[in-house]
User: Which sequence fits this backbone?
C-alpha cells in the first residue's frame, strides 16, 4: 500500500528518535533506496544535543523532478516516530507512522520492536526505513535491501538479520490500511520591522537564575532511575553522586529525582549500596503513563 | 561514478582527485568530516598525502602556506571561529603567492553562538588576497575545489583560494554527486608547477619592514593578480565544461534574461531563491536570480552586463556589517555606481545564523522592488513568529520566564 508518490511531486519524510537509535541511518537507508530507484534525493540529520538519548531527527526529501530544497522543510508528508516517548514532543504532520504496540488514533502503528526481537535498537534503523519505504511508490524491496547493505555498518550476520527484519516490516506495512493524513497547520505569518532595544535587553545575557532547568533534558533519557523508598537507607550517596544535581532529599533524607532534567546516566544506581535504585526503560514507563 | 554523498565528503573528494600532497588539519564543527575522510583515506593508503594534525588553525595555515611554497599541492579546511583564529596567516599566504586551496564550511560567528551557516566568517577574509568561490550544491563543493586549484595555480594568478560551502545545509546533506574519473582530473588539472626548493633555489621572503613604496607595489600586485584571475576563471570553467560537462560561471544567471527584477544571492540558500523565482514566475512575476559563485575576484563586468535594463535588484545578504549593512550589497552598489541606467537596488539581510528564507521573504523583496521604493536602509527579514520566539527566549533569560 503505497500512498506517497515522488513521481507526482515532492515527498518529504522525517524520522524522529533518539541518539543511539540509528535515526540518521534510517534516513540514509530510505535516501539510498530512493536514489537507487532513480529519484532525486536529499537526506540529512539534525542533532540537538550531540549525545546518546537526546532527540535526533533526520529528513529525506525526494522527487523525480529537480529538487529546489535546502534545510528542514516547512511541512512534511510522512512523520515516522521511532521512539514513542517523543510523541508528545513533536508536531506530527502528513501520514503518521509510530513504532508502537498499541493502535493509535490517526496513525499507523507498527510494532517495530516485535520484528526486531533480540537485536534491539541495533536494527531499528532498518525497520523504520523499510516501514517508510513501503509507503512510497516506486521503491521495491530490493532497493531497500541494497540500501541496508550499503548504509549499515555491521558484520555479515547482523546485516543478514537486519535485511530479514526489514523485509518482514516492508511486507507487513504494505498490507496495512491507509491511514488518515494529518493536515499541516497553516502558519499565518507576516514580516515585521525590528525596533531598537537598549543594550539591557538586546545583549544575549542570561540574568535569571536556574534557567537550565527549563531545558527539559529529561527527554534525553533512554532509561529512568526509579527509587524503591522502602529499600533506601538514606545514605546520601546518590544525592552526592548525581552529576546533574537533580536529586533532592525528602523529610526522611531519601532521594526524590526530578525527571524533567534527569538524563538517565544511572550513576545513582551504580553508587547505591542497597540496590534501591532500578533502571526502567523509558518506553515502558511512558506507555504506562 | 554517481553517488549520494555529503557536501563535506564531496569537498574531500575534490582534494583526493586533485592528488594533494599535504593536508595540515585541525577539527571544528561542521568541517571535521572533511579532514576525517581525508585522514581515513591516507591511513588506508587510498591517497598519497601527508596528513598532519596541528595544534591550532593558525599553525595549520602556516604549515599549509609553507608547504605550498616548497612545492607541495596543499589542501586544508576550517570553519568559522577556526578561520578567524588563523586570520593573520591569510594575508601572509596571499603575500607569499602560495596557491593552496582551503575549504571554509560556513558557520555564523559567536556571540551569540550558533553552528548553522552565515557568511560573516568567509567574508571577513574577502580583503586578504585569497580567491573566493562559493558552492551552492554538494556537486559544486567538489567541482569548486578542482576549479580552485586550476585557477589558483594559473601562472598569471598564483594566489591561494577559499572554497566556501554552507555548514549543515551542504556539509551534512547528502545529494547526488558525480565524482569524476581520476584520469580526467589529472588531465584537467595538470601537475602543480612550482620550482621545488633546492640548494640552488632557496628563496627568502622579504618579511622585514619594507619601504612603503615597495610594500605598495607588492600588495597591489595581489590585486593585479586577482584581476587576471577573472580571465583564469573564464578559461578554467570552459575547460571544466569540456572535461566534465558541467557549466560553472563567475555569476550564474537563473531565469534572468527576460526578468524585470533580479534577486542576487550566494551559496546554498540560492537554491531556495530559485524555488521562489520559479513559483513567482508561475504567477507571471518577471523575476530572475543572479548567483555569485566567484566573490574574489569580484566579477564586476559580468555583473554590469547581467543587470543591464533591469528595473530593480534585491540583494540578499546572509551576512552583516554592523553600522553599514549588507556586505555584498555594498560591493554591488559600488560596482554599479556610475554605470549607465543602473537599476534601483534594495538591500535585505536574511539567513543570519542559518535562518531559512521563506516565501514570505521573497515576496516581500519583490514587492519592495515593484513599488519602486527601495529603502535606504537594509531590511532585516524577520517575521512575527520569529519575533515571538525571540521574545519568549528573552523572557526566560531575563526573568526565568514561563
Ligand atoms: S540517572 Fe543520572 S541524572 Fe538521573 S538521577 Fe541518577 S545520577 Fe542523576
Ligand atoms: S544511594 Fe541508595 S540508599 Fe543511598 S540515598 Fe540513594 S537510594 Fe537511598
Assistant:
Amino acid at each position: 500500500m503505497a500512498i506517497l508518490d515522488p513521481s507526482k511531486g515532492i515527498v518529504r519524510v522525517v524520522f524522529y528518535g533518539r541518539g543511539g537509535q540509528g535515526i540518521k541511518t534510517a534516513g540514509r537507508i530510505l535516501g539510498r533506496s530512493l536514489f537507487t530507484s532513480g529519484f532525486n534525493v536529499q537526506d540529512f540529520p539534525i542533532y540537538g544535543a550531540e549525545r546518546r538519548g537526546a532527540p535526533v531527527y533526520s529528513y529525506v526529501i525526494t522527487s523525480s523532478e529537480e529538487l529546489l530544497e535546502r534545510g528542514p522543510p516547512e511541512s512534511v508528508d510522512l512523520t515516522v516516530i521511532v521512539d514513542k516517548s517523543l510523541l508528545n514532543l513533536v508536531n506530527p504532520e502528513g501520514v503518521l507512522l509510530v513504532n508502537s504496540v498499541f493502535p493509535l488514533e490517526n496513525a499507523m502503528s507498527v510494532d517495530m520492536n516485535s520484528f526486531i526481537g533480540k537485536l534491539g535498537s541495533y536494527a531499528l534503523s532498518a525497520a523504520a526505513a523499510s516501514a517508510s519505504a513501503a509507503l512510497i511508490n516506486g521503491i521495491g524491496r530490493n532497493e531497500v535491501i541494497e540500501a541496508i547493505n550499503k548504509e549499515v555498518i555491521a558484520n555479515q550476520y547482523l546485516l543478514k538479520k537486519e535485511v530479514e527484519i526489514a523485509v518482514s516490516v516492508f511486507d507487513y506495512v504494505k498490507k496495512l490500511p491507509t491511514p488518515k493524513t494529518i493536515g499541516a497547520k497553516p502558519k499565518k505569518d507576516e514580516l515585521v520591522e525590528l525596533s531598537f532595544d537598549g543594550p539591557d535587553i538586546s545583549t544575549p545575557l542570561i540574568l535569571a537564575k536556574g534557567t537550565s532547568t527549563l531545558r527539559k533534558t529529561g527527554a534525553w533519557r533512554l532509561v529512568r532511575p526509579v527509587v524503591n523508598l522502602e529499600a533506601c537507607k538514606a545514605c546520601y550517596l546518590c544525592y552526592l553522586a548525581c552529576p546533574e544535581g537533580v536529586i533532592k532529599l525528602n523529610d526522611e533524607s531519601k532521594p526524590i529525582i526530578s525527571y524533567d532534567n534527569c538524563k538517565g546516566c544511572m550513576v545513582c544506581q551504580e553508587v547505591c549500596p542497597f540496590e534501591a535504585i532500578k533502571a526502567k526503560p523509558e518506553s515502558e514507563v511512558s506507555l504506562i503513563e | 561514478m554517481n553517488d549520494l554523498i555529503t557536501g563535506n565528503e564531496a569537498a574531500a573528494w575534490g582534494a583526493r582527485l586533485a592528488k594533494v600532497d599535504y593536508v595540515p588539519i585541525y577539527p571544528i564543527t561542521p568541517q571535521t568530516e572533511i579532514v576525517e575522510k581525508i585522514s581515513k583515506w591516507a591511513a588506508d593508503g587510498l591517497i598519497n598525502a601527508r596528513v598532519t594534525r596541528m595544534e591550532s588553525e593558525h599553525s595549520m595555515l602556516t604549515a599549509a602556506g609553507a608547504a605550498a611554497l616548497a612545492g607541495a599541492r596543499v589542501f586544508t579546511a576550517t570553519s568559522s571561529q577556526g578561520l578567524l583564529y588563523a586570520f593573520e596567516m591569510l594575508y601572509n599566504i596571499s603575500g607569499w603567492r602560495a596557491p593552496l586551496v582551503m575549504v571554509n564550511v560556513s558557520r555564523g560567528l559567536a556571540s551569540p553562538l550558533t553552528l548553522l551557516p552565515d557568511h560573516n566568517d568567509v567574508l571577513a577574509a574577502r580583503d586578504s588576497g585569497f580567491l573566493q568561490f562559493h558552492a551552492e550544491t554538494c556537486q559544486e563543493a567538489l567541482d569548486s575545489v578542482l576549479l580552485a586549484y586550476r585557477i589558483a595555480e594559473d601562472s598569471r594568478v598564483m594566489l591561494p583560494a577559499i572554497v566556501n560551502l554552507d555548514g549543515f545545509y551542504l556539509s551534512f546533506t547528502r545529494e547526488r554527486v558525480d565524482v569524476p574519473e581520476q584520469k580526467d582530473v589529472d588531465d584537467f588539472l595538470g601537475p602543480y608547477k612550482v620550482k621545488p626548493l633546492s640548494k640552488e633555489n632557496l628563496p627568502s621572503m622579504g618579511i622585514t619592514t619594507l619601504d612603503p613604496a615597495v610594500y605598495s607595489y607588492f600588495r597591489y600586485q595581489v590585486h593585479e593578480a586577482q584581476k587576471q584571475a577573472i580571465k583564469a576563471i573564464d578559461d578554467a570553467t570552459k575547460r571544466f565544461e569540456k572535461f566534465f560537462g558541467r557549466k560553472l560561471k563567475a555569476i550564474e544567471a537563473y531565469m534572468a534574461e527576460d526578468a524585470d527584477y533580479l534577486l542576487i544571492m550566494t551559496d546554498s540558500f540560492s537554491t531556495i531563491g530559485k524555488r521562489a523565482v520559479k513559483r513567482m514566475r508561475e504567477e507571471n512575476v518577471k523575476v530572475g536570480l543572479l548567483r555569485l559563485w566567484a566573490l574574489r575576484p569580484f566579477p564586476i563586468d559580468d555583473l554590469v552586463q547581467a543587470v543591464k535594463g533591469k528595473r530593480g535588484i534585491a540583494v540578499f545578504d546572509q551576512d552583516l556589517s554592523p553600522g553599514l549593512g549588507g556586505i555584498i550589497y555594498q560591493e554591488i552598489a559600488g560596482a554599479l555606481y556610475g554605470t549607465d541606467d543602473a537599476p534601483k537596488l534594495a538591500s535585505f539581510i536574511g539567513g543570519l545564523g542559518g535562518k531559512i528564507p521563506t516565501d514570505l521573504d521573497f515576496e516581500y523583496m519583490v514587492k519592495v522592488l515593484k513599488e519602486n521604493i527601495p529603502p535606504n536602509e537594509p531590511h532585516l527579514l524577520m517575521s512575527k513568529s520569529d519575533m515571538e520566539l525571540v521574545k519568549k527566549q528573552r523572557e526566560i533569560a531575563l526573568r526565568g520566564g514561563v
About this structure: Residues A 225, 242, 244, 246-247, 257, 262-268 surround iron/sulfur cluster (ligand 1) (CB under 6 Å). The CA atoms of residues 178 and 236 of chain B lie 19 Å apart. DSSP finds 14 helices and 15 strands in chain B.
